[in-house]
Amino acid sequence: MSKDKMKDRNNKFRKSKDTRKQDIRDDHKQETHYGLSTAITMIIGIVIGSGIYFKADDVLNYTDGNIWLGVLVFCIGAFGIIFGSLTLTELSMRTKKNGGIVGYYEDFISKKAASGFGWFQTFVYYPTITVVISWVAGIYTCQLLGLESTLERQIWIGFAYMTVFYIINILSVTLGGYIQNLSTAIKLIPLIAIALISIFWSVPNPSLSEGVESLSKSSIGMGWLAALAPVAYSFDGWTVATSITNEIKNPKKNMTIALIIGPIIVLSVYLLYFLGLNKLLGPEYIMSTGDGAVNKVGEMFLGKYGSKVILIFITIAITGVLNGIVLGHLRMPQALASKKMLPKADKITRIHPKIKLSPWSCLISYIISIFWLLVHYITQKNNLLIGGDVSEIAIVFSYVSYIILYIKVLKMKKEGIIRSKFKGILSPILGILGSSIILIGGYLSNPVYVTFFLIFCLLICVVGFIYYDKSIKNLD
Predict the structure, then answer these.
(1) Is 109 helix (H, G, I), strand (E, B) or coil?
(2) 10-16 contacts, C-beta under 8 A, 24 or more apart
């Protein structure tokens, strides 16, 4: 080998070594701000939001008013998070990479795959959920204040909510965590209250008001599988907590506990609420009145102002979800940049000494969210998605993406890295089954739209994959 070639090879080795060292430094730059309680409440707080309040009637409609089939649907939907989270704990215990699921892809699949999935999460998943949750907050705020609920007003109020929570989480990382803990505690109050009161409630189910069409139970067909789409929406968001793994104290222990306890609490609360609501109102009443059913519970307990009280709790629940999503999203560009997966990485990775975050990362996250808010407005104004919204299939695509990680855990068990048969075999298999069922349910809900959007999400992943591949070649 010539001296020039030997010199060139040594330079490449030193560059590669320096890059690895820089990656390690980047992954440990951020300080730990949050404890176990914040990790758990972040999972519960993001998952339990508006969905459970306005999806209960959808579940009953798809299951033809069969309560116990509805319970089964909730349990099947929970497979995707309970066994999925149990599986991912095996990965969270073995990595210190930042970026949550992106870090898992990086350590256990490949950096190219991590870049592709990271682009999807940063440019599609997080921002679409952010804007839809902001919009829903605008809808309920209009109802609460008695304002005319036009799409434009809903969007502007949602934009205001989104901006406020970006400012809060940028100016104070600890305040964002406190808000998450507080909102989670508050949003659980009406859910648990309805479940507990239903145990002692003996008053007959309410009658429908005049002009409201009565929907009764009917025979059950295979259409009940479509109920998995609204259930998937109600359960989504649990992986967002993994985006702050590096800011959790003792992350290997605390994130593992949080990923186990959080989903189990969510399923328990959902089932208690669903059963309690059906006992108080009856499935026919819920199916006939739709999203307004829960307001009737407020009137039954607290009189004419009861519906307003329920709306206050729902609004707090939604804003708690929004806070958690924003808390996770504004860190994603910095996490990708620290892995050289975004252009201008050196600039984006710089952490501001006062706010303990990357200003450029926060700005990129905010701009992307504004872009998707505009897209969401256009699609809703022109009914381009036929009753859907820009976030729904991003959620389904995420569940499909997790299957790759579940398969990796199965391989790790086969190689002897994981010893537990429960976590190494049963949990990933059930996680794969849960994700597959959610994909089927989502597809049945809107075949044309789902197919188009899944392809779009895949293309974003391909762009991220190609960018990282080219950036590494340029470094060489």
Answers:
(1) coil
(2) 12/476, 15/475
Is residue 7 one of the residues assigned to a domain? no
Q: What is the dihedral of CA 148, 149, 153, 156, to 10 degrees?
A: 140
Name 285's Cβ contacts closer than 8 Å, sequence gap at least 6: 205, 206, 208, 293, 296
Return the CATH number at 118: 1.20.1740.10
Identity of the amino acid at 356 = K
Dump strand ranges (E) for 320-435.
none
- Say how many C-beta atoms besides its own lie within 10 A of residue 21's C-beta: 10
Q: Is 161 inside any structural domain?
A: yes
pLDDT confidence of residue 248: 73
Number of domains in the chain: 1
Q: Could you tell me the residue range of the domain that residue 405 belongs to?
A: 33-475
Q: How far is CA 338 from the centre of its chain?
A: 23
- Does residue 2 lie within any of the structural domains? no
Q: What is the pLDDT of residue 187?
A: 75
Q: Which pLDDT tens digit goes with each residue over 436-471?
A: 877 877 777 677 777 888 899 999 999 999 999 888
Which tokens hold the place of 143? 């109802």
Q: Which residues, including other chains, have CB under 8 Å from residue 277's CB and lie 6 or more apart?
A: 56, 194, 198, 286, 293, 294, 297
Please list the alpha-helical segments (H only) found in 48-125. Answer: 51-62, 67-92, 101-108, 111-120
**pLDDT score at 414:** 92
Between the alpha carbon of residue 196 and those of residues 142, 261, 308, 311, 334, the distances in Å are: 29, 21, 21, 19, 44
Distance CA 284, CA 390 (A): 31
Calculate the CA 278 to chain-centre distance.
Answer: 27
Tokens 């102002």 locate to: 305
Q: How far apart are CA 108 and CA 302, in angstroms?
A: 53
Distances (CA, A) of 319 to 136, 175, 231, 309, 384: 9, 14, 20, 16, 26
Residue 248, beta-bridge partner list: 34
User: Which pLDDT score is estimated for 223?
Assistant: 63
Q: Is residue 13 assigned to a domain?
A: no
Which residue positions in the chain have pLDDT lower than 70?
Answer: 1-34, 46, 49-51, 54, 80, 98-99, 173-174, 176-177, 180-181, 208-226, 229-230, 232-233, 237-247, 252, 291, 386-388, 445, 475-476
Q: Which two tokens stand for residue 186?
A: 């508050």
Q: pLDDT at position 462, please?
A: 95
C-alpha–C-alpha distance, residues 208 and 202, integer Å? 18
Task: Give dist(CA 76, CA 58) in Å, integer.
Answer: 16
